[in-house]
Design a protein that fits this description.
The structure holds two protein chains of two kinds. By secondary structure, chain A is an all-alpha fold. Helices cover 73% and strands 0% of the residues of chain A. By secondary structure, chain B is mainly alpha-helical. Classes of the chains: A mainly alpha, B mainly alpha.
Amino acid sequence: MDLLIQIIFGLLAALIIGAAMMVVTVRNVIHAALWLIASFFAVAALYLTLEAEFIAIVQVLVYVGAISILILFAIMLTRSSEGERLLTTHWWAAALISLGLFGAVLLPTLVGHTWNIPLPPGAPGTPETLSGVEEIGRGFVNEFVIHFEVAGILLTVALIGAIVIAFEERSRRRRVLTLAEEHILQQRQQATAARVSAVADAAD
Amino acid sequence: MQDVVNQVINTSFGWGWPSWAIALIGYLIVAALLFGIAPFQMLFLTLYERRAIARMQDRIGPNRVGPEGAFQPLADGVKIFTKEDIVPAAADQWVHFIAPCVVVAPTMFMFAVLPWGPGMVPVDMNLGLLFFFAISSVSAVGLMMAGWASSNKFALVGAMRAVAQMVSYEIPAVLSLLAIVLVTGSLSIVELINYQGGLFISTRDVASVPDWGLGWFIFSPVGFLAFIAFFIAALAEGERTPFDIPEADSEIIAGYMTEYSGMKFGLFYLAQYVLNFLLCAITSIIFFGGWQGPGVGWLYAQAITHANPQGGWVFNVLAGVLGVFYFLLKTYGFFFVMVWIRGAYARLRIDQLMDFGWKFLIPLTLVNIFSAAIWVGLTKWGAAEGLAFVEGWSPLMRWAVAFAVTLIVNLGAYLFLARIFAQSQDERTRQDDEVLEQLTNVA
């Protein structure tokens, strides 16, 4: 089982890193967004290998299902620059600085740290539920009730704000007539024309 | 399945394979089976829909290929395979190519948590219901990809419509399920079905009720309102007729599918019908007990299970067959209702769709969550939760009071909201008329 999990983990990690690399190197913005979605999805699969089912599913529901759509909509509605050169002429300087930082700060920490991760308690083969939906729910209404309520109020305010922005006086809105309305309009114009001519006839 | 594989490989042949290999083989067999079943559902449903809609329109429908047109879907399949695959020159080649796969894959994922009969579920996840709806929202990404990559205005408009519709109708669907989840206290689909034993009243609410497998949620006011809201939302999510705005062929050709031909178009078609099957299946599971029906519970109690290793294998087969029969009967029944609605209603306009979803369905489902909480309090809680006054009542009495209270709440909410919604729609048409008058300046 361990070998299988290792192989799956390796594939997923490669996918996540590869997709994330593509996000920042690809020229087309939409392609970058699609690679980002692939990366989100692989992260969800990674959570599944950790047996954190709830987090994995919420990752799919929120990131892949909602936020990615938001990103795509935003790009499609505001897109202006495409196909520009993404690498500057001084890309090697940036690469050097980031490599130096990595070597100076991260590498010693990574090497020097003793990775003493405790094994999960309980008999092997019976994993304890890691952040199950019940524990999270209880946490939300007991310990973290203030945070939960504040987040709820924040979202409500955002919703109301969106409505205020989107709301427009009906009469001020530019409106295209539908075919049926054009037909009604035509009928009415004909009717008034007929009435005017009838009045004119009566006057004669 | 894994028990069977383990029995065959390690006990009968004595090869002594490790448990992960057994698990892998077991899941692969189930996955292969389901992968074969899904396209057959699509083939059957296309024929079913065409025949049914033909009857409603006073026609006969396809009846030339095979007996009563039984092989018509196969002929269509052959035709679609041999068609030329055209990719527009301006299209984004790769995204155009991947989009149908991204639309089909989530529908196949959704089979993973779908129980077909007693003990017949590929993966009994604790969060099955959430998984089902989370994964179904992934196909919106595929639709967006298809619409954008085609570099066609109609395709993009169709994709935008499809995504807007899916995103806004996911909310009433999930909210109506939340009421059911409150009542069962579990997100597992298997647990949801087990809850629905009984006769009109669930055995979990009143233990003395005989278990005929008929204690469905549809028989409670909470479940009934949730069912109506959920089925309407499912119609929108499956792009069925009153909500087929994304592919309205009289307005935008075929929506996001406009630039697809050959088997890529076939894949969109497959995804749509498999999704419709799954939506009907999940409706029958959540509100109509899935495989629950008279006799299944009794048969399964005699079968070989972990709880009862001494059972007879004949009962396994019988319970499975009867359970799958009930399940498919209900599922195809709901698909018939979908076809029926297609035959009966005209398409909604996009603003009507949004109004109906946001101003009517969502408030209604929110009220339904409130009455679900009342239901739980009256049927399950006691002095420990602060409801001491229900302690003295008998279970039947508690159920009856809960039924009456939630019925009054739900009915009142429905009537109130329906009146308000009708008024707002009237006001809207009046304002539309006013704008028209102003624009035309004709009395």
